[in-house]
Request: fold
Amino acid sequence: MVDKLSDDERHGIIHHVLRRKTLIILRAAGTSNDEQLVATNVVIVYICMSLNNDFNVRRIERYLIIV
Reply:
């Protein structure tokens, strides 16, 4: 929960940080156990992909598994 400062569009005051209810996390490739937080508190996800020569069913499967 943030209030923008009226004199500056790029600065604000953080009053409260919401608790994380949902997480989307990517795991690092290879054998390391590193994780990267991608998004929190996500309710709806849209997965879009072009139908040109770069279309890849495996990529869509990976996106669905992540979500």
